[in-house]
Amino acid sequence: MDKKLDKNELQNLRKIANEVRVDVITMLSAAKSGHPGGSLSVVELVVSLFYWVMNIDPKNPKWEGRDRFHLSKGHACPTLYSVLARLGYFPKDELNKLRQLGGILQGHPHPRTPGVEVASGSLGQGLSVACGMALADRLDRKNSCTYVILGDGELQEGQVWEAAMFASHYRLDNLYVFIDYNRMQIDGKIEEIMNVQPLIKKFESFGFYVNEVDGHNIKEIVDMIGDARKIKGKPKVIIANTVKGKGVSFMENNLDFHGKSPNNGETDKAINELKA
User: Fold this and answer.
1) How many helices (H) and strands (E) does the chain have?
2) Closest by alpha carbon to 89, among 46, 126, 122?
3) Burial (CB count <10 Å: 0-12, 13-18, 19+), residue 105
4) What residues does 69 pair with on adjacent strands?
5) Cβ contact 100:31 at 8 Å
6) For the chain, which residues make up each domain, given as ranges?
7) With 196 labelled, which of 95, 102, 183, 250 sits at a CA distance of 20 to 30 A?
């Protein structure tokens, strides 16, 4: 990821992010179930990683030299599925079969889907999985990196902090952890359910390089990853400040859309907003 992101490429990535949001709304509406809020909040993170940062080959998903991605907050998988389909991991028509019997797109990621490394959705486990990937690549003397996205409510799980100790102890500087900090979980605001702050001080105390970005600013995300690459001997955490339901006015910061798909009228309204 030594290449620079110019104005035209940045504009193209923003366009792709908007198209992914349309896909997410369309998929969830057709499935009549799913999680729009958390899917929409990670769009720029997933687009930045797959389209610009990671070393991957959609025509050969199991390529030994690939970077690895793990979506620990598996309920946000519609965003991942849209990106994978657009890159050619599988036909885009599969997006119409989300959560349907016979389709390859489960309600949470499953390795049956090309581009998905391992199943996820049981919150709190993803950082442990990513640590294993990063350590395995080091033992195999690969130059690959592992990228993982965690939800902020997920940080309330103790296993996350056990994995953080592991990552620091083994100096996994090929591990990049992104916190989707949209400040909301299924039952309410993070600070009211169980406050996870101060995140920067916590991760620094565990031995991580830590920084934060606007999680909807693609240039900031790409630049921050570039800065993090220069840090050796430490795993990295990037806290992405995001908005739950980003891009659809009536879904933004609205807990009703944590796990509720839009009805027909809401779908039309959302898509009209995104295409305006």
Assistant:
1) 10, 7
2) 46
3) buried
4) 147
5) yes
6) 7-275
7) 250
**What pLDDT score was predicted for residue 165?**
98
Q: Measuring CA to CA, which residue among 81, 110, 73 is closest to residue 98?
A: 81
* Helix (H) or strand (E) segment spanning residue 71: strand 68-71
Q: What are phi and psi of 231, to 5 degrees?
A: -85, 120
Q: Determine the Cα–Cα distance for residues 225 and 237; give it in Å rounded to an integer.
A: 10
Mean pLDDT of 135-154: 97
Residues 233 and 213: their CA atoms lie apart, in Å, by 22
CATH architecture of 7-275: 3-Layer(aba) Sandwich (3.40)
Nearest to 140 by CA among 128, 129, 132: 132
Unique residue bearing structure tokens 């339901």: 245
Cα–Cα distance between 189 and 196 in angstroms, integer? 11
Question: Residues 146, 133: contact at Cβ < 8 Å?
Answer: yes
pLDDT at position 39: 98
Tokens 């050619």, residue?
A: 88
What is the Cα–Cα distance from 155 to 182, expressed in whole angstroms?
12
- Report the distance separating Cα 235 and Cα 138, nearest Å: 13
